[in-house]
TrEMBL record:
Species per Swiss-Prot/TrEMBL record: Nasonia vitripennis (Parasitic wasp)
Protein name per the record: Odorant receptor
Membrane topology: Multi-pass membrane protein
GO CC, alphabetical: plasma membrane
InterPro entries: 7tm6_olfct_rcpt
Length: 408
């Protein structure tokens, strides 16, 4: 019988990161908070790479469909283009996450060490754990929202399957002809669907790909970024609490405390840099593609409303909201880490450091000067991510939209 002896508690990092570790394991990227894990080879990344190749094949078929209907139905072409951009975003997340999983493993190990070594005091424990719980709950809600959207999208096909069953019952009267045009993916295959088993096989592989990419690729990268940033920010908060407690008392350990604080600050910045290295390619692809996705969804919403096709309108609205939520997700958490690194200088400055001896005051002034330069999470160093970047993405989406309106 299993016991709860080894179950993680809310004071353990695994309690919060365990959900993300399960998501990564479901796509073959098995990670651990412990060191010396030797299961991150090519064989573990193979499921992710296979689904990325699957997505690229879908991308080709989507382009094939756009080419055929562009001149006759631009509204449908915009819907396909929206699906195509979302598909590329999912592929990018899966591929870049698999490519950088070893570095992510290092981040896990570093965070585990910090969580075990520098725990919050009893006075601040409730505030720290509240921040961890909020992000943990938000990530779970985010996962179930994406999962619900995927299931709802699949349920839209149920009436078509009932119609197909009705056609099969009346197959002799219908001269054994069936309608195979209704599918989950807006793609055009380079072959005809000859029979019902082939149709069902195509439908279920599309459903599996939709679930795998939307509920796993999409969510894994986003929630992993949120959790990583949150726990580093919490470590910055713990450091600020410790600084306040250390420099507002008189003892003979000031120099040793100062050395420890400098080392902790340096380690936290190093982990921030590791997180940036892991997520920079994902963030760059999101920022470049999200503006286009928002634009084509607005065009698709207008077109489907004009045609009174409200089911497709709902799909476009859902993709629009998820794309916007994704941008907001990354910009908000990236801004959070910049604010935490910036506020560290204020914490040190507000302490009683001016009453220390000259040597300590000099070192503290150097720390303040270093902390005044906040850490910015960037997209491969091209531009920092934050609330300002959110405005830039929305302005770019509006520019794309106006350009399309001018072309029409």
């Amino acid at each position: 019988m299993k016991t709860s002896v080894n179950q993680p508690t809310e004071d353990d990092l695994e309690y919060y990161i365990g959900f993300n570790l399960k998501l990564l394991s479901s796509i073959g990227l098995k990670c651990s908070l412990e060191k010396n894990l030797k299961s991150l080879g090519l064989i573990n990344k193979l499921p992710t790479f296979i689904m990325c190749i699957h997505g690229l094949i879908f991308f080709i078929f989507e382009n094939y469909f756009i080419r055929d209907i562009w001149s006759s139905d631009k509204t449908l072409a915009m819907q396909i283009l929206s699906q195509e951009v979302s598909n590329i975003q999912c592929i990018s997340k899966g591929f870049f996450l698999a490519f950088a999983i070893e570095r992510m493993q290092n981040v896990f190990q570093e965070m585990q060490y910090l969580w075990k070594t520098y725990r919050p005091s009893q006075d601040n424990r409730k505030k720290i754990l509240l921040g961890a719980h909020q992000t943990f709950s938000f990530c779970k809600i985010y996962f179930f929202v994406l999962l619900s959207c995927s299931i709802s999208y699949f349920l839209c096909l149920i009436p078509s399957l009932f119609n197909l069953a009705q056609q099969y019952r009346n197959r002799e009267a219908n001269n054994y002809t069936y309608d195979f045009s209704q599918r989950l993916g807006l793609v055009k295959y380079p072959f005809e669907i000859p029979n019902i088993p082939t149709y069902l096989l195509i439908v279920f592989q599309e459903a599996f790909y939709l679930f795998y990419t939307a509920a796993l690729f999409w969510v894994s990268g986003d929630t992993l970024f949120a959790q990583s940033v949150t726990h580093i920010c919490l470590q910055f908060k713990i450091l600020k609490y410790d600084i306040d407690a250390t420099f507002n008392r008189e003892d003979m350990r000031d120099h040793l405390s100062l050395v420890t604080i400098v080392k902790r600050h340096r380690d936290l910045l190093r982990i921030c840099k590791l997180i940036e290295e892991v997520f920079s390619p994902i963030i760059l692809s999101i920022m470049l593609l999200s503006s286009l996705n928002l634009c084509v969804n607005v065009v698709g919403i207008r077109g489907t409303i004009a045609k009174e096709n409200y089911q497709e309108t709902a799909i476009n609205v859902t993709i629009f909201m998820l794309t916007f939520l994704q941008i907001l997700f990354y910009c908000t958490f990236a801004e959070k880490i910049s604010e935490e690194t910036r506020s560290l200088a204020d914490t040190i400055y507000n302490c009683d450091w001016t009453v220390k001896n000259y040597k300590l005051r000099f070192y503290i002034q150097l720390i303040i000067m270093r902390c005044q330069k906040p850490f910015y999470c960037t997209a491969y160093g091209f531009f920092p991510i934050g609330h300002l970047q959110l405005t830039t993405v929305l302005n770019t989406a509006f520019s794309y939209y106006m350009m399309l309106q001018t072309m029409n």
